[in-house]
Amino acid sequence: MTKKHKIKKFKRIDKGFTLVETLVAVSIFTISILGLLVVLSQGISNTNYAKTKIIASYLAQEGVEYIRNMRDTYVLYDLADSQTGWNTFNARLLSVSCQASNGCYFDDQGLDFTDPDQPMTGITVAICGGSCPELKYDSTTGKYGYASGANSGYTRKIKITQVSADEMKVFSTVFWKQGSGNYNMIFSESLFNWIE
């Protein structure tokens, strides 16, 4: 008897990826990486916007604080009496047309804090005209002003509304441009002749 040998045929099964499978995997990987990059760039953009908005809010609040400090200086340290100080303060702001639609701005660069006689009265207040000048940022001192430094991109405008003989409303608006948008931040406060 002869033995029949059975020959088994082996099918060759490749365990690798086909070209289509590879392209699909690369496409999925690319889309996921692009999604992460979009989320990352949006996060960076949001962080920059938050930073500029915080700076703008500080600059707007500073505008109100300077005007309040001027009021306090005139009212508290006027040699005649507090009413004369209030009247002088009102006249000072109204004389430079802070009530006009363009408003006014102040420059504190000329202040001499070593002068014991009302240094806050030395603030220069000027009408904005067509527009207020852009604030400059001095990186050595960390201050915003008009004398020295690089352009900051921020513009501050102060407007005054006379409510009554003993009350005025101060609006401090900071404008800036970021990306393709124009933004502004407004702080306001009522100032009173609080000494009777």
Explained architecture:
α1 (19-77) crosses α2 (82-95). The chain is α+β, with helices and mostly antiparallel strands and 196 residues long. The protein has one domain. The protein has 2 helices and 7 strands, in the order ααβββββββ. It has a 5-stranded antiparallel beta sheet with strand order 4-3-5-6-7, with helices on one face. The longest helix has 59 residues, at 19-77. Helices cover 37% and strands 28% of the residues. It has helices at residues 19-77, 82-95; strands at residues 104-107, 124-127, 134-138, 143-145, 150-164, 167-178, 181-192. The chain is rod-shaped and about 130 Å long. A hairpin with a 4-residue loop joins β3 (134-138) and β4 (143-145). The model has no long low-confidence stretch (mean pLDDT 84).
